[in-house]
Design a protein that fits this description.
By secondary structure, the protein is mainly alpha-helical. The protein has three domains: 2-120, no CATH class; 126-228, no CATH class; 251-418, Orthogonal Bundle (Farnesyl Diphosphate Synthase). The chain contains 18 helices and six strands. It has helices at 2-16, 49-70, 114-120, 126-153, 155-162, 166-183, 185-188, 192-209, 218-230, 234-246, 256-277, 283-303, 305-310, 318-324, 328-332, 338-359, 376-388, 405-415, and strands at residues 38-41, 78-82, 85-89, 94-95, 104-106, 109-111. The strands form two sheets. Strands 1-2-3-4 form a four-stranded mixed beta sheet. Strands 5-6 form a two-stranded antiparallel ribbon. Helix 4 (126-153) packs across helix 6, helix 10 runs antiparallel to helix 11 and helix 12 packs antiparallel against helix 16. The longest helix is centred in the middle third of the chain and has 28 residues, at 126-153. The two termini are 37 Å apart. This is NADH dehydrogenase (ubiquinone) complex I, assembly factor 6. Involved in the assembly of mitochondrial NADH:ubiquinone oxidoreductase complex (complex I) at early stages. May play a role in the biogenesis of complex I subunit MT-ND1. Residues 1-20 form the signal peptide.
Amino acid sequence: MYRIFASLILEAVWLDFRYCYECGSSPLICLSKYCVIFNVITTHRRVCISKCFTAHRKIFQQLSLNKTNDGRELYIRALSVVRGSVFVVTQGWKVKGNMAAGISAKRGLLRSEPSLYRALRRHVPPSRARTRGAASSAAADSQAYCLQLVRSRDYEGYVSSLLLPEEARRSSLALRAFNVELAQVKDSVSQKTIGLMRMQFWKTAVEEIYRDEPPKQPVSGELWRAVRKHELTKRWLLRIITEREKDLDDRAYRNLQELETYSENTQSSLIYLLLESLGLKNVHADHAASHIGKAQGIVTCLRATPYHSSRRRVYLPMDVCMLHGASQEDFIRGGREQKVRDVVYDVASQAHVHLEHARSFSNNVPPAATLAFLQTVALEDYLQRVRRADFDVFHPSLKNRNPLVPFQMYLRSWRKTY
């Protein structure tokens, strides 16, 4: 019974010390770098929970201070106390046996001794410490840059990335930052030639990333880290760049199938990479990802219609517009006629079909893969709101973000559904 109480208390401590991506603050131990697991096993003796918690806190306060005393970061991966024997496992070296005698489990309490700290406090030359500190600072700046970029440009992707497991969270933000960088090229350049030059930069950057020579650019550095950690497929990255490069022509899609092809090569490829970062390779998950990517591309085209119309651009499929007799000028002036609503209805219906088709594989898709599909919540929310607006894509209610979407994403991640 006391063992159960100890686990509950320490689980609460873990939740309390979680790294806050929202404000960027770091509590006692930043759990994005430190994963501390307490396992206190008691046999035939009562455990004082409050004293046990105080002892754990005191020890790890002193361990965290060691980082500033001699320049060495201690990456404590696990601390196991099993009937008096202690194993302290750090990154690259271990302390156990006689050296572990500095910490003892006595009457359910952890007692610290100076011998443990002398063993852990190894001297690092100042030059090496400065080099390591500079590299760590650059990595932190790159991570913060990607996080802020995704948060400002792809909020639903930002929220869904935070709900991923810790080992895939940073890689997801890097992939989404890479996608945002490519997506904003079209709107940030005045000439197609400049856009082609930026696309060529990213093609060269991907090649250099897979040669372990990433360029000194924040997104490239984070993408290199994700590729090295998860062995991501280069073909998906290059396919996103190639399709974005074709889209620089700045013309409307000829038909709905062309829009689906564009969505498959961009959005679906991104989801394939997210599945790889989660360590999943499943044909049913890939099939569902293909349809979710198509639905996302279609919905994105609909959501961006008011913005593009304000810049005298229309990218909705021309065959659907011609079928209902709607011209590009009708969208440019923000028309709300029935023919304009009919075009929106047909395009939105196709996105809904892809969502339903993706959900038909839910029984065969691994539960862990559903975390890569959390953006279906935002897609479904927009389709429902545009339906309530009678498919008026220029309705003022569609300009506001639904504040309940992050909470709905959390529920989906907890239920392992999409």
